[in-house]
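wait is this the right file?? whatever heres the structure
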């Protein structure tokens, strides 16, 4: 049935695994043969196991990505600054290879409008259904300004978007989180530094298909010694005196700076200090400021 449907629709299209696939269940397909092969992999070869037993076929939406986050107290919400994620690595979908924020050109009123269009309806529906939502809501958008489509809505923080938020956060998040649980989030909004933050992910050899583990990581102290740099660990573990790779997305290198250009330069100075066999990263994080 899926193949009959594919023969009738315009390409490119999107094939999605309906289950949880760590951000790797989305396939952009621009030729019929490739699309049929993705469907066959998911439904017949069960390449993603149960996550891909049911699939969704959607129209392709062009344009940049926009990650929204809203802290919600069941009735009210506060928007966090919009962040841009970079989803692909060498053409393949990943959990996210980097992010930056704030996004130049997105005004407070535009952020308010995004909230009204993409957050308020979800909050209202969950409340109307007797399950008011408390916590972090993360709608993922794609498309050109004023014509964005919501591709997904997550009840969790984005990764690597959160690294960007945490580097720009002033003070503690605790009061905001407590207000989400049993208060009014509008009385305890998080505050943000004016600086730009960028996160660049360094991934293991073989990511996203089959990441290699156990490679010794060098240069972490040197990278962390650069002013404004903090390296977060994701897929690492200790092995004797060494830190070694232990997952797909290995490190999140984060920087802050007064301008996006300066943050971009600093990010790649920090990444240049780090070395492990087969490491992969994108070289354009923070570059694409065009909306
Ligand atoms: N970076 C995308 C996500 O967390 O789903």
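ok assuming it is, sequence goes like this
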């Amino acid at each position: 049935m899926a193949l009959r449907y594919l023969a009738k629709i315009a390409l490119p299209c999107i094939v999605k695994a309906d289950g949880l696939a760590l951000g790797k269940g989305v396939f952009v397909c621009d030729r019929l043969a490739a699309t049929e092969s993705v469907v066959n992999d998911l439904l017949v070869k069960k390449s993603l196991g149960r996550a891909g037993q049911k699939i969704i076929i959607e129209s392709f939406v062009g344009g940049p990505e926009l990650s929204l986050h809203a802290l919600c107290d069941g009735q009210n919400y506060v928007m966090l600054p919009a962040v841009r994620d970079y989803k692909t690595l060498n053409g393949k979908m990943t959990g996210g290879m980097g992010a930056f924020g704030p996004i130049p050109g997105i005004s407070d009123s535009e952020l308010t409008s995004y909230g009204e269009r993409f957050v308020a309806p979800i909050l209202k529906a969950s409340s109307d259904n007797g399950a008011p939502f408390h916590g972090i809501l993360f709608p993922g958008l794609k498309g050109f300004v004023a014509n964005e489509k919501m591709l997904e809505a997550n009840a969790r923080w984005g990764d690597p978007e959160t690294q960007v938020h945490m580097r720009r956060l002033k003070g503690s998040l605790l009061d905001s989180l407590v207000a989400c649980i049993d208060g009014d989030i509008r009385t305890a909004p998080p505050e943000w530094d004016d600086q730009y933050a960028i996160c660049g992910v360094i991934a293991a050899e073989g990511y996203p298909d089959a990441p290699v583990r156990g490679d010794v990581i060098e240069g972490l102290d040197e990278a962390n010694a650069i002013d404004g740099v903090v390296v977060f660990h994701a897929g690492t573990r200790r092995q004797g005196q060494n830190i070694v790779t232990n997952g797909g997305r290995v490190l999140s290198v984060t920087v802050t700076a007064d301008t996006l250009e300066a943050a971009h330069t600093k990010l790649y100075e920090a990444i240049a200090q780090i070395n492990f066999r087969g490491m992969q990263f994108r070289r354009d994080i923070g570059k694409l400021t065009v909306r």
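The pocket of glycine is lined by residues 23, 85, 95-96, 154, 158-159, 161 (CB under 6 Å). so i think its the right one actually
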